[in-house]
Specification:
CATH topology: Cytochrome p450
CATH superfamily: Cytochrome P450
Structural class: alpha+beta
Strand order of the largest sheet: 1-2-8-5-3
Strand content: 5-15%
CATH architecture: Orthogonal Bundle
Radius of gyration: 22 Å
Number of helices: 20
Distance between the termini: 56 Å
Number of domains: 1
Bound molecules: protoporphyrin IX containing FE
CATH class: Mainly Alpha
Number of strands: 12
Shape: globular
Length: 445
């Protein structure tokens, strides 16, 4: 795809441009002309399956292309890199996120979420509008810091870290768009990036160091687990890697869920039929009880609504790979060292794989339709050995938040428009969503 098409449209409206590249490719492997850098765009579910799963060893998270190099300055070697460091971190962290362990934490998460939602009684009484992004951040940070970080990081500190992450997500964009710029050459955003990393380190390093001396057998919060964990060959992580993984885990456990849920409210506002079905399901399954573990499996439509949000707004919108050895994908030769663009945002909005892809329709995720679709037509959590560790947590936590909020309140938006998509290092809503809350009569307090 020629430079004169690619670059101007990417600058004007990146999300639309990316989907447009997918549509023009017709599912074939094509190259995007970004000047001296020409990555291969992989959109077809069969090709994605090869890259992410079947030949995962040949497609690594490395190389100079796109976001791994800029983000490495924040996350370093560990769970968000590849090779030996990644293997060690994955081995230590994975047991914390198994479906079984997360299931066992649901009721603790539910109580923490309920307590955070109690704070909304006041704006509901006064009619003061709230910013849904901030409300969700408060809820998610309160629950995650208590259950996964054993309150080692306070909620106000977690909120400051999230602000710094927001600055980082923006400030690395020039380096993502111009990946051939040498690290030593100054770029716009560099100073903001360094300031934000410094703030995160200032907040986290003292906590991380203090936890090294106090971590005891049986402590299962993320920081203690990183200190105490053994790698496959019996070694331990050094301070650098514990820091890298703590930073990565604070980022992935918070901003992901918060960003995805922000789009829920405008969609419910625009689609009364969908909102009514969701409210009816919650009323039937949860009623005026507090939401608990036993309700979650019954909330099937709620899960479909979440899947549809993840289809349209996959916050990990780009996770490039580099080919180690030459390969042939869909008849196209991909040389060693090539960068591959893998993007759920593109595939999940392509008309070749989705009927009326721009329409919000949770019925796409009815069990029959899910079974009839290729695995990699919907892959918001990636796939293969690097598949998201937090997938199960996301579904449970997001369901708890949505069910608890909607069994207590109704939300009226200040502006009914749907926020645009801000294409930063992770995808975010472009505008704030503000709403007034109305308490449901008879709802559990
Ligand atoms: C809710 C808590 C979440 C946690 C704790 C979490 C954690 C992680 C971690 C640790 C990884 C790296 C896995 C590895 O390389 O071995 C990862 C990967 C990933 N996560 Fe999540 N995540 C969460 C939510 C989400 C959400 C909501 C999305 C998308 C909507 C998402 C999308 C992804 C994707 C696409 C990858 C794979 C990247 C790649 O293959 O290079 N995550 N996640």
């Amino acid at each position: 795809m020629p430079l004169r098409h690619v670059v101007p449209s990417l600058i004007r409206e990146p999300a639309r441009a990316l989907v447009g590249f997918g549509e023009r490719s017709g599912g074939e492997v094509v190259r995007l002309n970004l000047g001296s850098f020409r990555p291969y765009l992989i959109t077809h579910p069969e090709h994605l399956q090869r890259v992410l799963r079947e030949k995962a060893d040949n497609y690594v998270r490395a190389g100079d292309g796109l976001q791994w190099r800029p983000l490495k300055r924040l996350f370093g070697e560990g769970i968000l890199s590849d090779g030996e460091h990644w293997t060690n971190s994955r081995h230590i962290l994975q047991p914390l996120f198994t479906a079984r362990r997360i299931d066992g934490l649901v009721d603790r998460l539910a109580v923490a979420i309920e307590e955070a939602i109690d704070e909304l009684e006041e704006p509901a009484r006064t009619g003061q509008p709230v910013d849904m992004g901030t409300v969700q951040a408060q809820i998610v940070c309160s629950a995650i810091m208590r259950v996964f970080f054993a309150d080692k990081i306070t909620v106000p500190d977690a909120m400051r870290i999230m602000e710094a992450q927001d600055a980082i997500a923006w400030s690395v964009m020039p380096r993502i768009i111009v990946p051939w710029a040498p690290t030593a050459a100054p770029m716009p955003g560099d100073r903001a990036f360094r300031r934000a990393v410094q703030l995160i380190d200032d907040l986290l390093l003292p906590t991380i160091r203090a936890a090294r001396d106090t971590a005891r057998d049986g402590d299962d919060d993320i920081i203690s687990t990183l200190w105490r964990g053994r790698t496959e060959d019996g070694g331990q992580l050094d301070e650098r890697q514990v820091r890298n993984d703590t930073v990565a885990m604070v980022a992935t456990t918070t901003e992901t869920t918060i960003s995805v849920l922000t789009w829920l409210w405008p969609h419910l506002d625009r689609d009364p039929a969908i909102a009514t079905r969701l409210f009816e399901e919650l009323d039937r399954v949860v009623g005026d009880q507090p939401v608990r573990h036993q309700h979650l499996r019954e909330l099937r439509y709620t899960r479909q609504v979440l899947d549809e949000l993840l289809r349209l707004y996959p916050i990990g919108w780009l996770f490039p790979r580099m080919a180690v050895e030459e390969d042939v994908i869909g008849g196209v030769r991909v040389p060693a060292g090539a960068t591959l663009v893998v993007s759920p945002l593109i595939t999940q909005r392509m008309s070749m794989f989705w009927d009326r892809p721009e329409v919000f329709d949770p019925d796409r995720f009815s069990p029959e339709l899910v079974r009839s679709r290729p695995r990699y037509a919907h892959f918001p959590f990636g796939g293969g050995p690097h598949q998201c560790l937090g997938m199960h947590l996301f579904y449970l936590e997001a369901t708890l938040i949505v069910a608890t909020l909607l069994s207590r309140f109704r939300f009226r938006l200040q502006r009914p428009s749907l926020p645009g998509i801000k294409v930063a290092a992770a995808l975010r809503p472009l505008e704030r969503v503000e709403a007034t809350l109305h308490r449901l009569p008879g709802a559990a307090a």
